[in-house]
Each structure stands twice: as structure tokens, then as C-alpha cells.
Batch of 2 targets.
Target 1
Amino acid sequence: MADAAGEPDIRLSTPVRDLPGIGVRRADAFSRLGIQTVFDLIRHLPARYERHFAEGCIADLPMEGVGTARGTIVNTRYITPMGRGKGRFQATLEDHSGRISLTWFNAGYLREKLHPGMTVRVQGKVKAFGGYPQIANPKWEPLDDPNRENTADERYRPIYRALENLPSARIEELIALVLPKVLPQIVEPLPVEMLHHHAMPALPEAYRLIHLPEDEEEAATARRRLAFNELLLLQLGITIKRHFNKTSLVAPRLKWTVAIDRHIRDRFPFPLTPAQDGVVKEIAQDLQRPQPMNRLLQGDVGAGKTVVALYALLMAVADRKQGALMAPTELLAEQHYASVGRILAGSNVRLALLTGAIDAAGRRELLADVEEGRIDMVIGTQALLTESVRFRDLAVVVVDEQHRFGVLQRAAFRERGAGENSPAVVGGTPKTGPLRSPHYLVMTATPIPRTLSLTVFGDLDVSTIRGLPPGRAPIVTRVVPQAKADEVYRYIAERVKKGEQAYVVVPTIDATGHESAVQLKSVREHAKHLQDKFFSGLKVETVHGRLASETREAVMERFRSGRTQVLVATTVIEVGVDVPNAMVMVVEHAERFGLAQLHQLRGRVGRGTDGRKSLCVFISEPVTEDAAARMAVIAETNDGFRIAERDLEIRGMGDFFGTRQHGMPPLRIARIPEDMPLLQLARRDAEQMITADPALTRPEHTLLRRLLVQYYGDALGLIDVG
Ligand code: ADP
Ligand code: MG
């Protein structure tokens, strides 16, 4: 298509390959940057900016700025490389005001091109080098006519993420070409008053300013607006979901009486701490309401979350309904099953374990028992989420270690197993009336910094258990180099001989938590090495994710009962494992683990209450700056909340939850935690909007709603809003 003037008609949806001057190879390069359409192109935001100064004389060149100057080459020198590699070419440029040194690396070819006496124009970033101004790798052009006009303007230039065959300058050119044509096609999704109120430019203007700012201030204004857009959409999605949960779902109201409370507490081997009591109260109040609870329980490793969860599950059972506890690994599910079983021994609560390890016949029978209500409480893994699991009357779901599950999975229980009384559910949407849902309690031992709980877990209420149960002696943490490993193991052998137990953790090789073949071998090899060299006469066993579950259960049981003294493991023991007499831990290659994971691992020791101090030794050779920073943090504090905040600072939000998807689109522009104030602004606005217009059906919100469905609809269940 072409308009009246014969110009090609450029739309936001126009493929980049159809733009003038873009051949197959260029188009290919753009597509490698994730850019297919013109809209993708203008959303390719500058990574940074560079100030380019107008041409000036050498004495006036800006330090640390990109400057342009012309002059005469007064001398050149080629410095041959030491060993292999290419040499360095140096020249001195002079004008009436002074001299500057120019250096090109890997530039032997310049010997043929640049000679004393030539007049050239050079451009580059001016830095002090050994006290003298210098430009490294300047761009240069010969000036045949020394009096030619000075053409370089002073400019603040965007620098884009680029490729070798698609330099930033080419991207800049193309964006500058399309921007004026497509800006009018960008529609402002936000109400005008809101923009006024926050002193923010409209969206088209923000796109113009981010690509073509006059100065830092304009670029910052534009970025703030675009980041706000992103955060507002996120907060709207979360707020709508929250609102929907509160108004369109019904949950069973559970009874909470003096007798029930007494009954449940009598089961526990210890009185609850005030912190646990506080959280139990919050939960019990939620469970009495007809809206489903959606609560995140966070507390440091060992804070005692399990009994709180069990309290909630037992409230369901006391009211003749069912409870389910879902753990991220089979090992942890088995652990929970064993410890809950001990607490409930002798009661008439009917408890079952459902993991992927169960055989088909056993599974069929178990599923029938669950569906017909012969089981009160099920503990399991993701296997609980499969289609075939139906409950007669599921009232409370506890999800342990939520950071390892997708947000999406929480929704899965909602559509099933609310029993005969629930309306028929077709394709995930209710035919009539409100949808029945159980109450949810999700637990995490990776404390979520507030910024993140507002984003990733923003649809949840949050309860926090601060501090640890009484009687815990602090854990002594040491970070030591590999060279000291033998010394460490000799010391640990001493302690084990005196009756303590020890974990030795060997890293997995890929970050996903699955051990590769190489890894399994190293667990076994390391165990053998330790057995032979340090732990002769002691019982050493291994545990990892590839063991059959009966074998693994047996290993854990022998360790728990003290028959095994040393357990060499992969990170399968990272969560939940609770053996109070295990007071020593060694983590090999600690630099390979994330901070949260190291803290989790360390949380396996220090569980005794007899006052003896536990020891955790991280053997590491920090190879990167980040790894060194992590080691410093883990050595310095045992406070999970502090660690989580530092972790977020070191890694940034994208990596905080590891490689697992958590059902949220990544933030592209906003930066967490720096943009916290903007996030709070977005949250307030979103709440106001949704209070006034819950389904965003007002005309001024139509566009926003469409965007929301487009970006987050599936992830946040927005489609349900109708
Ligand atoms: P986490 O919060 O990491 O899941 P757990 O629930 O596994 O922690 O509890 C850690 C340990 O503390 C367990 O051995 C548990 O029995 C013990 N514990 C929990 N609450 C109390 C309490 N109120 N008094 C004494 N010990 C407790
Ligand atoms: Mg736990």
C-alpha cells in the first residue's frame, strides 16, 4: 500500500522486512533480536544513551563524553604484540589548541592507512589514560579538504542492543524513520486524568522521548511512563483476580470452636509460639468465611510452618471435610507424611500419601477412597493435581514451598473436587452460580521481599512467622576453600564419632534440580571417598532424586533413627528434611548454588533444642563476583529475610525464582526493587479502578481491559471475568 504521496504505508503491524532498505539478511538480524514487526521495533528500547558533542577543538573535548575533533596526525607508532594476537596502533592528533593520543587495538592494517601529515576527523569517548587524555578505537575519516564544514551536531544518542551485522546506529536510523509514522497509531490506554495526576506523558509521546530524548531527563520521564504502564497492567491483573476470588468463589465455612482448638493443640508435641499462634488466628478467621482463603505463609527455614498448616488441615477434618497438603518433591511429601503420621497416631484421622511412586492398583483404590470420603487428609506431590484426583469435599489445600510451583497450579484445585454440591464445571467456567473453591494456604521458606510479594504473589494475603521456635542454638557458618576440605572432614569425623550426624551436599550439574548421570556418579564417588578416607567405621549412605521412593524412604528412615551417621546427598534434601540430631553440614562447590538455596540447605541443621551449636561449612572457590558476594552474605547472616533481599539485589528479579516459570510475564522495563515507588503507585491506582469498575467494563477502560486479556488473560484467569 502507498499513500497519496507515494510513501509506503507503515503500520505498527508492518513486518520489518517490508520496510524500505531492509533486505533478507537485515530482516534476519532483526528477527534474531526478537523484532518482527514495527511495533516490536519501537519496543526495542535503548539499552543506554551516549552524549555526542559537536565538533570542537582538542582542548575542549569533553572528558568521559563522546567528542569529535579534527587535526593533523603528527606521529604514528605500531606496537607489536607479545606472543600471538594483533598489535596496537597509536597516533597523536594535533590542532591549534593541543594534542590528544589515539589508540586502536588489533589494528595493524592502519599502518598502511594513517600517516603523519594527514588531516583527519576523529570521534570517540575521551578518557584519561595514565593522566593523559586519550581516545581508544576512535572512528576516523580522512579530510581531503581541511576547511570542509563542521557537520557533527551535539546529540544525546540512544544505544541499542545490537548485533555485529546490525549495529546500534542502523537500528537507530530505522526507528527514527518509522517513529513519526506510527506514533499516531499508538492509542493511549490510560485515562487522561491519571496521566495528569502523575505528570506523565501520553504513551505515544513516551515512545518518542525514549528513542529521541534531548537529554537524560526526557529519557527518564519516558522510561518512568513505560515502566508505569507495565506495572499498572500487572497490578490490574492481580487486583482483578483478587476481586474475582473474593466475589465469585464460595468456600466452605469451617467451624472454629473452643473444643476444636483444644483438640487440635492437644495433638501437637509442643505449645505453639506466639508467632505461630498469631498466624493460626489469621488462618482460622479466614477459614470461617465463605470466601476462599488465599494466604501466603512465609517464615524462615525451621520457623515451624508445618504445624500451622496442619492446624488448618485439621480444621477441615474437624468439620468432616477433607484437606490436602502438596509438596514439591516426593522426598518432602514422604517426610510430611511420616511426621504428620506421628502427630496423628492414635487419632481417627484417615491419612494417605499420594505420589507418582504409587502403583496403578494402589492408586485406583486410593483415588476411590478420596472421592468417596474415606480419606480425610491427603499428602502428596504434583500427582495431586492430575485430572483423576477427585475429592468428596475438599476444604483446605496447603501448598508447601510455593516458590517451586507455578502460580497457575493454584487454580487447578478450584475446578475439581468441590464435591456433589458444586455446580457442574464445563471447560473451566461455571454454568450457574458461584464456583466452589477450597481455601488455600501456600507456604514458602524463601521469604519474599515485599516488592516481589506485590508482583508475583500480589493476589495473596501474607502471614509471616518471624523468628524460630525456642531453644535453637545459632548455626556456626564457615566458608572455606577447597584446599581445606580434608581438614574439614577430619574435624567432622570427630564430631560424628561423638554422636552427631552429618549431611554432605554435592551440587547438581544443571540448574533445574534434576541430577545428570555425571552427578549421580559423583554422589556415589564422593560418598565412597569420604567413607574410605575419613569415615571408616561409620555408616555412610547416599540419597538423590533417582532412587526409587521405597529405597529413599528407607535411607531417610535409617538416617532419622540414627543408624546412618553421614548422608551424602544432592539438593533433594534442600527442603523439609527434619532430623534434629543432624548438626553438621558440608556443602561442596557452594559457589554453584543460589543464596536462597544455600540458606535452605543450611536450614537442615540447627534443628536440635539441646543447646549444642550446629556447624555449616560451605566449601567454595568463588569464581565470579556474584559468587563471591553470595558467599559473603551467607557467611554474614542467618536471617532469611535479609538474605532474600540481598539475593534479589544480586540477581535481579528475573532470576529470583530460578528458571521455573511462575506464570507471570517478565517485566521488561520496570526494574525491581528500584521501581518500588512506581509499583506502589500502580497498585493504588489499580485498586481504585477495580473498586469503581470491577470488570473494567466502562468505556474509558475498554482498551485497558483488552490489553490485560491479551497480555495476562490466561495467566491470571482474567478470561473468567466474563
Ligand atoms: P519450616 O517452617 O521450615 O517448615 P518446620 O515446620 O519443619 O519448619 O519446623 C521446624 C522444627 O521446629 C520441627 O522440628 C518442628 O517440630 C519444630 N517446632 C515447630 N514449632 C515448634 C514449637 N512451637 N516449639 C518447639 N518446636 C517447634
Ligand atoms: Mg517446611
Target 2
Amino acid sequence: MTARSLPDFVERDVDLAARTTLALPGRAAYFAELKSTAQLAMLAREPALRTMRRFVIGAGSNLVLTGDFDGLVMKVAIGGRQLVEENDDAWVVRVGAGEDWHQLVMWTLAQGWPGLENLALIPGTVGAAPIQNIGAYGLEMADRLLSLESVDTLTGKPVPLDHAGCRFGYRDSVFKQQGWHLDGQRLITHVSLRLPRRWQARTRYAELAAELERRQLASPSARQIAEAVIAIRRRKLPDPATLPNAGSFFHNPRVSGSLAERLATAHPELPRYPQPDGSVKLAAAWLIERSGWKGRDLGRVGMYERQALVLVNRGGAHGAEVIALARAVQADVSQRFGVELTPEPIFL
Ligand code: EPU
């Protein structure tokens, strides 16, 4: 982009560290905070955009900066939360992609619309939530998403997606499958959620069930579930404001039934979650802990002492240190258990 043709909301040489929760150093050559779809359309008319690398960022809570980015980073700041439909089955809420996810959860509960309570306190924006299909304590985004509105960042054309079009999987969606999250080709502007009137509490996740029992809540309300989830998360997960991190750093791996059985013979206490297709999901945190990495540092990064799956920046770390630690953990888990771990956050 030449300086002459830049829309005035595009900034140059912008620090990204403060815009990501892992707080790794990195700068963007160009940075645009987008508060409206009109601004997106203005950008799409800019010819220089076609030859430029693009990336879309929300709250930066699932992002590893490996250095500077020589293209345009688009930060979605589109706001608004609105009840757009109320019928016998559900409340339908349409939300701007730049809204904070946790605040949305608390707002819906305050309105008396249950359905998002298990996903309380997940960091990040509403628009980022469907990309990796955020999930926690037995519920995931895919369970509540009705549809979303995205825009092709090159043409400015709206591309709506229904639930099937999102092709959700475990921490996965069409955005990751197509690589749209990496090349900034698509940007989510709004998300519509369906909150069921015939709500049923989801309390089977062992840790949540235990917390509710401790609170002597046999039939908890949605708000009480949110409070229990918040308490569990505060106990185990570091607050990025005080200890920078990007949540779970690896996916929980899926292995064949036969490998899971072999591992369980050697380690009877191995947590196992059988899947409908015969494969078995294992707890990455457990594998990491048993490989000696819980609470252990390498350089200025480490695996968190209260939840081994969370990689933390002890202060001043660079992306290269994160990559080195991730590789060391992967190598040890692979050698000890024959299981390959894949990182969950996006590397830029
Ligand atoms: N465990 C250990 N050591 C640890 C932590 C956990 O052995 O240090 C064992 C636990 O005892 C348990 C199992 O590992 O048997 C699972 O642990 P936990 O319930 O804490 O959940 P997780 O599998 O580690 C996943 C999600 C989290 C989500 C929680 C709760 C992934 C990659 N992570 O973690 O999501 O909050 O379940 O539903 O699926 C995120 O994606 O960023 C995230 C935080």
C-alpha cells in the first residue's frame, strides 16, 4: 500500500505484543482496527491489498507471534448484541464479532437466556470462537451456533455460513480446514447463537460435577453452573493479565483403540475418552505431566504448574523460545508414550 492510498484508519508499524495474551514480541507493518463492515469494504477497494499478506486478529488469545508480520493485520472490533428472534424453541442472539466472549456469556445469563454457561471465562472475541470451535466442560460453540456472517477481505463480499457450512470438529472448523484463518481471506463480522428454551444443564464433565457437588447444587441453574465453571477456571488456569498464556497449548490427541489399550496396561490411571468412531481421546495435560514437564521451564517459558497443558511466558520470552519448548515437550511425550501432540494456537 502506498502512503497516499491508505485509508486513515490503517496504522503503520504497530506493536502486536500488547494485543496478544502470550505477550511475545512482534510488529505489524500495517494494522487496521475495523469497527464496521463499511471500513472493510473500504479496505477491499484498496488494490495494494491484493499483493499483501493479511491476517485477522481478535483478542489475540490463541496466537503465537514468531516475529514481525510484513503485511496487514486486521483487528475486528465490530460490536453489538441483539435479540433478533424469540420463538417457542429458542432465543436467537446476533452478536458483533469484536464483542468479548465472556461478557456475552454473562449478558445472556443476566437476560435469563441460558445455554452458554459452560463456556464462561473463555478468553477471546465472539468472532474468534467459531474458528477453533471453543469448548469447555462438555459444551462447545457448535452446540449453540446458528449461523455466522463473514466477508471476503479481497472483494468485500458478504459470505454467510450456516451451521453445516462451518464444518465443525474438535477445535476445528472450515476456517482452519481451508486455511482462511492464516491468510486472512475471510473475516467473521457477526455470529448468531441459538439459546434453547428447553434448556438442560450439562454437568457430566467430572470436574464440573465435583464442583457442583461441593456446592451442594443437585439441580443448578445456568448462572450457578457459570459460577462453578468460573471458580474451576480461576483455580487452574493462569490469568493472561498476570501470567501471559494462550490457554491449552496442545490439542488432546486422538489415538487408535489399540494404542490406548496398550498405554492403559502400562498406566492404568491414564485418562481415556472413547470416541464414537472407536478412537480414544487422551488428556494431553496428563501425558505432559507424566513426561516431567508440569511446572518446568525452558528459557523464559514453561508448562504451568497448575495445568500442564498451558504454556506460560514467565516474562520477556520470544517466539523462538515457545517453539523450542513446544518441540521439547512433543519429543518427550512421543518418546515416552508414542503419541504425537499438535499445537492448538495459531502461529504467525
Ligand atoms: N490432568 C493432568 N495434569 C494436569 C492437568 C490435567 O494429569 O496438569 C488430567 C486431569 O486429571 C484430567 C485430564 O488431564 O484427567 C483433563 O484435564 P482438564 O479437565 O483440566 O482438561 P484438559 O483436557 O486439559 C480441555 C480443554 C480446555 C478446557 C478443559 C475443560 C483442550 C485442548 N483443552 O483441557 O480448553 O477448558 O478441557 O473442558 O481441549 C483451551 O482450549 O484453550 C482450553 C483451556
